[in-house]
């Protein structure tokens, strides 16, 4: 059974930092690309950061310079370090594990973790 469990969210003041974690089980974690998405109230889910199996990273333009994605394959965990938080970062953050198998994509989602930025 595949599970992705996000943690690390919470209430933080503007300018603060958080580190989100996404712990995976039931998959060969190291061969998966991991994405972090976020969904703000009333908005569509949006991709914010990606890390591939070889460690390459990519970020959405609004978060470049403030978000850092990393992975620890020994712990089957991906992290999202978020610095200089603003109220616009308030959202539920989800991780997604994906890989291509033959002609299909395998996709797994976590349940999300809430990040609220407010003074």
Given the helix and strand composition, which structural class is it?
mainly beta
Question: Which H/E pattern describes the elements?
Answer: EEEEEEEEEEE
Poorly predicted parts:
none
The average pLDDT is 96
Number of strands: 11
What is the radius of gyration computed over CA atoms, rounded to a whole number of angstroms?
14 Å
What percent of residues are in strands? over 45%
- Strand count, sense and closure of the main sheet? 7 strands, mixed
Shape: globular
CA distance, first residue to last residue: 40 Å
- Percent helix among the residues? under 10%
| Number of helical regions | 0
Notes on the protein architecture:
The N and C termini lie far apart (40 Å). Helices cover 0% and strands 55% of the residues. The protein has strands at residues 3-7, 10-12, 18-25, 33-39, 46-51, 57-59, 67-72, 77-82, 91-101, 104-109, 113-117. The protein has 119 residues and is mainly β. The strands form 2 sheets. Strands 2, 4, 5, 6, 9, 10 and 11 form a 7-stranded mixed β-sheet that branches. The chain has a 4-stranded antiparallel β-sheet with strand order 1-3-8-7, with no helix packed on it. The mean pLDDT is 96.
């Amino acid at each position: 059974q595949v599970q992705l469990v996000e943690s690390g969210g919470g209430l933080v003041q503007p300018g603060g930092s958080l580190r989100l974690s996404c712990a995976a089980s039931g998959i060969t974690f190291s061969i998966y690309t991991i994405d972090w998405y976020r969904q703000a109230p009333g908005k569509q889910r949006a991709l914010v950061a990606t890390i591939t199996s070889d460690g390459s990273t990519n970020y959405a333009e609004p978060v470049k310079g403030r978000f850092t994605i990393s992975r620890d394959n020994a712990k089957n965990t991906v992290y999202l370090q978020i610095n200089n938080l603003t109220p616009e970062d308030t959202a539920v953050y989800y991780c997604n594990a994906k890989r291509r198998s033959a002609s299909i994509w395998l996709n797994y989602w976590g349940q999300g973790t809430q990040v609220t930025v407010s003074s």
